[in-house]
Structures are given as C-alpha cells and as structure tokens.
UniProtKB/TrEMBL annotation:
InterPro entries, per database record: HATPase_C_sf, HATPase_dom, His_kinase_dom, HisK_dim/P_dom, HisK_dim/P_sf, Sig_transdc_His_kin-like_C
Catalytic activity: ATP + protein L-histidine = ADP + protein N-phospho-L-histidine
Residue intervals of the Histidine kinase domain: 214-456
Highest taxon above the source species: Bacteria
Protein's name in the database: histidine kinase
Enzyme class: transferase
Amino acid sequence: MDEDEISSSLFTLLIIWQTRRFLDTKNRVPQWDWWLKNYWFINVALIGLSTVTDEDFPLRLIWLIALGMVGYTVHLLSPNQAARTAFLAVAPFMVLMSVFKVIEDLFPKFAKTYDNFIDSAVSFSLIWLVAFLIVASRQKKALIKLEQEREIEAAERRKIEARKQELEYLVAQRTAEITSQKEELEQALTELKATQNQLIHSEKMASLGELTAGIAHEIQNPLNFVNNFAEVSVELIDEIADEHHKPNPDPQLTDELLTDLRQNLQKISQHGSRASSIVRGMLQHSRASSGQREPTDLNALCEEYLRLAYHGLRAKDKTFNASFSAELDASLGLVTVVPQDLGRVLLNLYTNAFYAVQSRQKAEQGQTSSYQPTVTVTTECVGNEVRIRVRDNGVGMPESILTKIFQPFFTTKPTGEGTGLGLSLSYDIITKGHGGTIEVKSREGEGTEFIIELPA
C-alpha cells in the first residue's frame, strides 16, 4: 500500500469527521451518527483486507463508501440547505477520486496518458470543494443565526404566553376583588340608605318633639277659654232656669242672659276651632308627606309655626324669653305647596333662629348689654314668586360655614344637639320638592337671614 492510498484513506476519514462536525449529526441524527463516528472501523477493515489480499481494489471502495455515507447523511438532513451545499462540495471530488482510482487499475496506460488532465480535474474539484465549503459555512452560520432568532422568538413567545397567563390570573383575581368590593359597597349602600332613613326619621321626630312642646302651650290657651266659658254658660243656664220658674219672670233679663249665653257659646266654638286647627297641624306635621300640593294659607302657616317653635324652646328652657313677630303680606292669598313639608322647613328655620338668639343671650349674660333676642318672619309677593324671610339677631355665622351650611350632616350645634340633616332636608324640600330657592345671609355676631323663594 503506497503513500497515495494512505493519504486517500486519511482524507476520507477527515471528510467524514468534518461532515459530523459541520452538520452536527450527534444532535440532529444521533442514531446515524454512531455509524459515522465508527467509520474508521470500516477504513481499517478495508486497509487490512487490501494488505492480506495484496489487492488495491478494497481501498478503492473507501471513496464510494465515504461518498455514500455523506450522501445518506445529507438525505437525512434534506431540509438543511447547508447540508446540501456541503454534499455538492465533496461529491465531485469524491466521485472523481473513485473513478480515477478505478481507471488507474483497469486502464493504466490511459491513466498515464491523461495524467495531467486527471490532476487538473482533481485540482479543479478541490477548488470546487473549498468554494462550496465556504458557501456551506456561510449558509450554516445564517442557519444558526436563523435558529437562534427562532429560539429567541420562541423564548419571547413563551415569555409573552407566561405573562399573558399571569395577567389573566391577575385580571381574574382583580375581577374577583372588584366583585367582592362591589358587593361590599352595595351592602354598605344598603346600610347607608337604612341609616339615612333612620336619621331622617330621627330629624322628623326631633322636629315633632319641638312642635309637640309648642302645641302643648298653644292648645292650653283655647282649652282654658273653652273651660271658662263653659263654666260661665252653665251658670247662665242656671239663672235662666231660676228666672223661668219664678211666678213673674222678667223677659228682659231672660233675653240678656240668653244673649250672654250665645256669646259664650260662640267663644267656645271659636276657641274649639282654634284647638282643632292646632291639633290638625300637628297631625299633618307628624304624618308622612303625601307629596301632593294644595292651596295653602302661607301667612297662617308661617305665623302658626313661629309661635309653636318659640313655645317649644320655652318648654325646654323656662328662663328663655324672646320677641317674635310676623310681618305678613295680606295680599298673598293661597299658595300651592305641600303644607307638611313646608311646615317642617319653617319649623326648622324658626328653631335654629331661636337657638341662635338663645346662644347669644347666654353668651352676653352678666354683661352690660341691651340685647333683645328677636326673630322675625316676613312674607311678600314679588312678581311671580313668593318670598319668605326668616331673620334673627343671634350669634350669626362666619363666611367659612355659609358654604357648607346645606351639606348633609353638617351642623354648627354641639354634639348631641343636632343631626346635621335639618337644613339639608329643608334645602331638598324647597329646591327639589317645590322648584324654589333657599339662600342664607349672615354676619358673625350680628344675626342670620334665610330667604326662601317659591313659585307663586
């Protein structure tokens, strides 16, 4: 075996090794890689067979076997462009080497004659091999880069998918939290409405308490008159009976007694009607508002509740005294309102006014002062509107409080003396219930004035 045969054998080993490394057969086709890795057994076996038989033919098979193994490797990796290019690189060289080795054995004279041609063909195939290996190397690099980009994209997709699942979980969790919060808020709203209704009821009951105390005083006067005139009427009847049973009754005296009796009965009827009016007003105030408007004597309503509010406060504090007056527009006539609701507004404004003058009176107690607590209500017709003014000369309010005075639960009274709903409810009754307006003017230390305007 000459050096040329040894070099051919080593060259095929190199080609197989480069094929394994270049095409990464260990990872791509691991089962077939075992045969490529152990190709040197075939190489050694053929060399041994050639030595034993003293024939060169077995060594000629080295190129064909190597070419076949490379070709089959490329077939297994057919989608790989770099593998096909590598096969195109080595195939011409390996085919030429196989063919020329056979020609040298079978046609030695022809091989010698065309030795230069054969060498040129082999040299060209080597150049071809190197050129295509360079191309295959570039394709391999491009493929590796593409695979890396795909792996990066796949990793990004996995990250995006993981992030998507995480966000879906967070959204589901947040949705559950929002649903839970919504249920809690709905429950809180239900409880708040119930509490609000209780507070409104408490405010109404508080105003009813003020009204009841005033009514107790107001109704006492007509009842006293009724009782007194009833007693006098009984005495007159007795005198008439006595005169009637006399032998010679005096007709003139009887007429005078009957006249006095008639006047007493008229007084009883008058004061009874007054007591009935007071009781009727109390019942209207205490019952739930129907929301129905009806023609109402606004002057009588304003005057009635003014007295009731004053006597209600007097029932709590016997030492309190104040002047109150009603300056009423006689031309006002009947105004269509909800009397129960408007009565609550007036009672609330009067109660606050008397409370304000009482507070100022207590503050100035013991000082040299000519202060006289005064509360005044005024009614007037201005164009198509009715205007009600409730003025007091009490403690007044600073500017900072005026902006919040109609807010729910805001109160200037000490804790336990006010719910903070009175003016808020009054504001809603006037603006929403009657389509009117209510505003307040006040100067600290001088007094306060509430102005109500209603459509006439």
